Amino acid sequence: MAAPLASDYNYPLLNIFWTMLWLFLWILWIFLLIRIISDIFRSEDMNGWVKAIWVIVMIFLPFLGALIYLIARGDKMYAHERKHAEQAEAAAQAYIKSAAGTPTNTADELHKLAELRDRGVLTAAEFDTQKAKLLA
User: In the chain, which residues have pLDDT < 50?
Assistant: First the structure.
């Protein structure tokens, strides 16, 4: 059997464009379904039965289910995402502050400096210098 020639392959540029378009739309569809299903499970205003019904609708009628969900609860999707992002940011900030071991405000830092001065670790001049930096 002879090897196929390069002229035997016929896949025009327009077909490549359409293939790439459909592939892009398919990936976009998968991301949309993941986003909707994660929002269903993240929602605190729905009970378990309502979540189960939405998931069943998304599995058996994906296009219609996604369209209905976006119309009915699209604004709540944004609110859920924003709330989740704010909680994640607050948790990250709390972790950074606890890991760094830094005082949370200037009064705490002044108190620590005063303790160091009282124990003799800092001289009065060093205390005044550090205090001026904090208050500046």
Answer: none
